[in-house]
Every structure is written in C-alpha cells, then in structure tokens.
UniProtKB/TrEMBL annotation, chain A:
<dbReference type="GO" id="GO:0005886">
    <property type="term" value="C:plasma membrane"/>
</dbReference>
<dbReference type="Pfam" id="PF00510">
    <property type="entry name" value="COX3"/>
</dbReference>
<feature type="transmembrane region" description="Helical">
    <location>
        <begin position="136"/>
        <end position="162"/>
    </location>
</feature>
<keyword id="KW-1133">Transmembrane helix</keyword>
<keyword id="KW-0812">Transmembrane</keyword>
<dbReference type="InterPro" id="IPR013833">
    <property type="entry name" value="Cyt_c_oxidase_su3_a-hlx"/>
</dbReference>
<dbReference type="GO" id="GO:0004129">
    <property type="term" value="F:cytochrome-c oxidase activity"/>
</dbReference>
<dbReference type="InterPro" id="IPR024791">
    <property type="entry name" value="Cyt_c/ubiquinol_Oxase_su3"/>
</dbReference>
<dbReference type="GO" id="GO:0019646">
    <property type="term" value="P:aerobic electron transport chain"/>
</dbReference>
<dbReference type="InterPro" id="IPR000298">
    <property type="entry name" value="Cyt_c_oxidase-like_su3"/>
</dbReference>
<feature type="transmembrane region" description="Helical">
    <location>
        <begin position="182"/>
        <end position="201"/>
    </location>
</feature>
<feature type="transmembrane region" description="Helical">
    <location>
        <begin position="97"/>
        <end position="115"/>
    </location>
</feature>
<keyword id="KW-0472">Membrane</keyword>
<feature type="transmembrane region" description="Helical">
    <location>
        <begin position="70"/>
        <end position="91"/>
    </location>
</feature>
<dbReference type="InterPro" id="IPR035973">
    <property type="entry name" value="Cyt_c_oxidase_su3-like_sf"/>
</dbReference>
<feature type="domain" description="Heme-copper oxidase subunit III family profile">
    <location>
        <begin position="1"/>
        <end position="202"/>
    </location>
</feature>
<comment type="similarity">
    <text>Belongs to the cytochrome c oxidase subunit 3 family.</text>
</comment>
Length: 202, 475
C-alpha cells in the first residue's frame, strides 16, 4: 500500500515542483494572438478614422448610453473570475464546485449577450445601419463582431463543462479548462479596450 | 444497401490489396487518375494562352484566347473537384472505420461527372459560345457567361446531381461510422462547396447583384469552405505520415478553420470595393481580408510542427514533402500575394492588373493543387498495393515537386513584375498609357512567364512519369 502511494507521488512530480509553463494549449495561444491581431487592426483603423472626423465621432458617442455597457463590462469580468475559480477548483479536484463555476461563467456571458442585444436592437429601431456614417459603421461592426466572440467563448466553456461530466479535468489535467479560460480572458480583454475606445473616450 | 459494409467492389481486379483498410476506398483511384489527366489538359491550355499573350493570332481562329482561358480555368476547377472527391472517398471510410455506403454509386458518379465534363469542354471548343448557350437552354435560366461559371445550364445541373450523389454517399458512411474531427471538417467543407455552388444559379439582371452573388461562389469557395477541405486533407495526411497524436492535430485543425471563417467570410468584402456595393465594404473588406493570411500561416506552422514532432519515419517521403510544400506555398500564394492587393487603398491601383493573375496562379497551385497532390502522393501507392513507392519513383516525384513549384514561383514573379510595370505606366503615371500601349511594355514578362510555363509542364511530365517508375533496375 505504501509502495503504491509512493509510486503515485513519484508519478506526479509536476505537482510538487511547478515549472513555468504556458497554461492551456499552445495552439490556442496562436489563435488568441491571431484574434488579437484582428481586433488590433480594427481598433487602429478606428483611431485613424476618428482622428480624421473628430466631430462626427463625438456626436455619435453622445447617443451611446453608458449604463448598460458598464454593467456588461462587470458581467464579463465576473465571467473571467468564474473561469479562474473553475481552474482553481479543478486543480483542487473539487469537481462539483468547478462545474458550477463554469455554469456561472456562462450565466454571466448570457447576461452580456442579452444586454448587448437589447442595445443593438434599440439602435436598429432608431434606423441606424452600417451605412449611416463612419462612426456607426465602426460601432456596429465592432460590437457585433465582439458579440460573436462572446458566443464562441460560451460555446467553448459549454464544451468544457460538458466534457467535465466524467471527471476529465483534475489536478494535473487542466489543459482544457485553462485553454477555455485563456480564450474567455481574451474576449474580456478585447471588450475592455472596445468599451474604453468606443463608449468612454470622448 | 443495408449491408453496405460488405458491398462488392465494382473494380475489376479481384486481387486483395492489404494496404488499404477498406476495399471500397479503391473507388478513389479513378478519381485521382482523372484529376491528373485533366490537370495535364489545364496546363496545355495554360501554355496556349500564355503564348497568345505575345503571339495573339496563335491558333486563331480555331481556339481564341477567351475560349482557351475558359477551358484553362474550368479544367482547373474540375480536376480539383475530382481530387477532392477522390480524397473524400478515400478519407471518409478510413476515418469512419467502415466501408463506403455505396461503392457502386461512387463509380457511376465518376463516369457521369467525367463524361459531362468532357462534353462541356468539347462544347466550348467545338461551338461558338452563344450557340452552345442557345442549344443548352440558357434562355430558360440564364446562368452562363460569367467567369468560372461558364458551364451550360445542363452541366451546372449535372454538377449539382453529382455533388448530391457524392455527399449522400459520404454522409451515409459518416452517419453510421466513427466521427472524427477530420471527417466532420471535411464533410462541412464539402457540403459548403455544394451549397455555395447553388449561387451559380442566381443571376440577377442588376449587374451589381450579379457580381455580389458571383463572389458567394468564387470567394466563399476558395477563401472559405475549400480551406476546410484543405485543412482536413492536410491533417489526415499528417496524422498518417507523422504518427503525431490525433488529438493534437485535430486541435490545430479546429483553430485553423475557426480563423479561416472569422477572416474569410467578411473578407468577401475585398471584392466589393468598386462594384457598386455600399462604402463600408472598403473598410470591412480591407481589415478582414488583410488577416486572411493568418490561417494559412497557422497551416504552415502546423505542418512543420507536426513533421518536427513526428513519431515515425514514414517510408513515403514524397507525401511528407508535398504536405510541407502545401504549407509554405499556400501561405506565400494565398497569404502573402493575396495580401499585396487586398487593401482598398492599394487595390484602387492594382485592381484587374496582372497582380491578380500572379496571386491566382500561386494560390491555386500552392493551396489546392498541392493539397490534392499531397493526398494523391500519400494514397496512390496504397491504392496500388504498396506502402510507398520505390526510392527511384520517389526521387523523380520529389524532383517533379521542385520543378513545378519553382516554375510557379517563376510564373508568379514574372507576372508580379508585369503588374508593377502595368500599375506604374497605366495607373500611377502622370501621363498614363492606354491599356494596349502598356501591354507592349510587359511583353518580356509575358515571354518569361511562358518560359516558366514550359518548365512547369516539364515538371508535370516528370510527375506523371514517376507513376510508371518501378525502381526494379536499382535493386
């Protein structure tokens, strides 16, 4: 018995001597870099256009309500916190609690989607479209594109939640959860920049 | 039909081939043979039009430039489709771990497609296009006369039927078999291919809308769903030749296709700069298409990474070379050369110049021709009953790889030089020359392009010869 447990300890050296490593899957980090490049280019071009037409962009921003987007920011950050909690709890092998964290992350993400949809529908009802002017074109394409990323993030979290049913993740087996968390943080990060750039900076 | 797993093989040879896991995979062979045959035809017509660039009356009036160009591009599409279908018939049973639902249907489909394709080419060459249009019922539903979609209505309907039969066959196989990421991505791509082809029947009178939907076929094929097919084929071959864990390869595949779709779908906008579509396309098209190289770059990293981490030395070295070549050349051709003219501010000057031709040649070869050749290189030895070809045959095949690939680089560079001249004389100059005057200044580049075209044909002949090298003399 003691021999067996000794063998077990020997088989898991990584737990005792944590080596620096990239959390999650390397391929996901490539993907995240690519995604950040897409948004980065988008933000850059936004900046250039805004510089050229400051009055138009300032006027457009006066039509943006700040309350709901601020709530949305909090929702996404709360979702990120849940993902961190999920990784920690899986690392402690607290399966039930970890899965609940994942579920909660999806609830926060869903809340974001509902608020965002409400906001977008309002804009469409007001007759705003991609062709209205450059500000609204950026507003719509940036927010809708980000919206789709939140959806993708939720799909990834849902997949992890689904696969976690039979104890796939646990101490030393965190790759999938970390990968999903990394993606969620990316979506969160992009929103923080988008929120600051399009809504707040006037 | 219910007992499809033991369906008899329609092929005449009764000898047992122990290199393929499922006997019905053998239906891929005629598809690959036809693909190579049509590939040769495509290159021959490419040489004809390459020559006509500087010797305008060559073969006049028998084969005018417009006709030969149509045959050149249509043969390209058709041989690639044969390649994809062959790949599908080989890959899906292997991934699903069961026999093809109906090998007989696959063979019938093959002959229908081949005969229809051949008749269409004969129609192009033997009849004036308007006569062909008239007798094939273009008056009923006008669909002809648009680039890549020149096929008569009956051929288009035929393509849809062939695609349906093919997809039915593979989907039935997949439904009752093992489902892997590779097979699912492959099927997604193939279904997308068929669905977007349906837009070839959409031909509004409004020229803007006509072009708008034309790109739904052309762009969403080559910069959308075809990339899924390509990714799946590349992943399949890499699993086989490197022995790297399927899980790792599939993860890469998912991320690559996600990136493809994120950039490629809205990237359609880079065709909507100057055709009368709303102004925002200049921005959306520029941003998203500028990032279309990313998935191709990921494919390059993917291919090299997997080969580096290989767990076995597969005897088929030629297939590995083709797979790596696909990674590099698709990135250069589709990624880098595509990027050159994709920003609207640049495209304003380069639109419709030889830059498009330069990009088109390297991208089609680097991405789609090469991925089909990768698949053929891996599967043909198996279909012919050996794990890999003899050393001598592989050596010739690898030489052919280099000759063809370098020839395409030469063609691309010649056409890029032509584009630079064209843009500067015809578009940027303070006193711009006319189109035809400019052409006179490009003649040396057209000569060079034709020379590299001959090199390519030589490489292709070496490639074909490699199938007949037994290598017995060496041993």
């Amino acid at each position: 018995m003691r021999e067996q447990s000794l063998a077990l300890i020997e088989a898991q050296p990584a737990r005792h001597v944590p080596e620096p490593h990239i959390p999650g899957d390397l391929a996901m980090w490539f993907f995240i870099l690519a995604e950040l490049a897409v948004f980065g280019v988008f933000f850059l071009v936004y900046g250039v256009y805004r510089r050229q037409q400051p009055a138009l962009f300032a006027e457009g921003q006066t039509h943006l309500d700040l309350l709901l987007p601020t709530l949305n920011t909090l929702l996404l950050i709360a979702g990120s916190a849940c993902m961190v909690a999920a990784v920690r709890r899986f690392a402690q092998d607290r399966q039930r609690a970890a899965r609940q964290s994942l579920l909660l992350a999806m609830v926060f993400g869903g809340g974001f989607l509902v608020c965002k949809l409400y906001e977008l529908v309002g804009k469409f009802m007001a007759g705003i479209s991609l062709s209205s002017n450059d500000f609204w074109m950026f507003y719509l394409s940036l927010t809708v594109f980000h919206f789709l990323h939140v959806v993708l993030g939720m799909v990834i979290v849902a997949a992890v939640w689904w696969m976690a049913r039979d104890g796939r993740y646990g101490p030393g087996r965190l790759d999938g959860v970390e990968t999903a968390a990394a993606y969620w943080h990316m979506v969160d990060l992009v929103w923080l920049v988008l929120f600051a750039l399009v809504y707040v900076a006037r | 039909m219910s007992n499809a797993t033991v369906a008899p093989l329609p092929a005449s040879k009764a000898t047992v081939n122990d290199q393929i896991k499922y006997r019905s995979q053998a239906v891929a062979k005629p598809y690959f043979v036809a693909a190579i045959g049509l590939f040769i035809g495509q290159i021959l017509f490419g040489l004809i039009i390459g020559l006509q660039y500087f010797k305008g009356d060559f073969l006049f009036p028998a084969i005018p430039f417009g006709t030969a160009r149509m045959v050149h591009t249509n043969l390209l599409i058709v041989w690639l489709l044969f390649g994809f279908m062959g790949a599908g018939y080989f890959l899906i049973p292997e991934e699903c771990e069961r026999e093809l639902y109906s090998p007989k249907l696959a063979i019938i489909t093959f002959w229908v497609f081949l005969v229809a394709g051949a008749l269409t080419i004969v129609g192009y060459l033997g009849l004036p296009y308007n006569v062909l249009a008239h007798i094939t019922g273009n008056d009923l539903l006008p669909t002809m006369g648009r680039g890549y979609l020149e096929q008569p209505l009956i051929t288009k309907v035929g393509i849809v039927l062939v695609a349906l039969s093919f997809l039915f066959n593979l989907s039935m196989t997949l439904l009752s078999g093992r489902k892997t990421s590779i097979s699912i991505v492959m099927m997604l791509g193939l279904w997308g291919l068929a669905i977007f082809f349906l837009f070839s029947f959409v031909n509004p009178n409004n020229l803007v809308l006509d072009k708008y939907f034309w790109w739904w076929v052309v762009h969403l094929w080559v910069e959308g769903v075809w990339e899924l097919i390509m990714g799946a084929m590349l992943a399949f071959v890499l699993v086989k030749v490197t022995g790297v864990d399927r899980e790792i390869i599939e993860k890469w595949l998912y991320l690559i296709i996600a990136m493809t779709l994120i950039t490629g779908i809205i990237g359609t906008g880079h065709h909507y700069f100057w055709i009368g579509t709303p102004g925002y396309w200049q921005l959306l098209g520029s941003i998203f298409s500028a990032l279309e190289p990313v998935p191709f770059f990921m494919m390059t990293v993917f291919a090299f990474n997997m080969v580096k981490r290989r767990r076995r030395e597969h005897p088929n070295q030629a297939a590995t070379l083709w797979a790596l070549g696909t990674g590099v050349m698709s990135f250069l051709g589709a990624g880098v050369w595509g990027f050159l003219g994709t920003l609207s501010v640049v495209n304003y000057y380069t639109h419709g110049t030889q830059l498009t031709a330069a990009h088109g040649h390297m991208a089609f070869y680097g991405a789609y021709a090469m991925v089909v050749l990768t698949m053929i290189s891996y599967t043909m030895p198996l279909l012919r009953g050996r794990e890999a070809n003899s050393a001598a045959a592989q050596k010739l095949e690898k030489t052919a790889f280099w000759v063809m690939t370098l020839a395409i680089v030469g063609i691309t560079l010649s056409l890029t030089a032509a584009a630079v001249t064209q843009v500067s004389l015809q578009r940027l100059s303070a006193s711009p020359l006319s189109f035809m005057e400019t052409q006179q200044h490009i003649m040396p580049m057209y000569w060079a392009r034709f020379g590299f075209g001959l090199c390519f044909f030589t490489g292709l002949m070496m490639y074909v010869t490699s199938f007949f090298v037994t290598g017995k003399r060496e041993s």
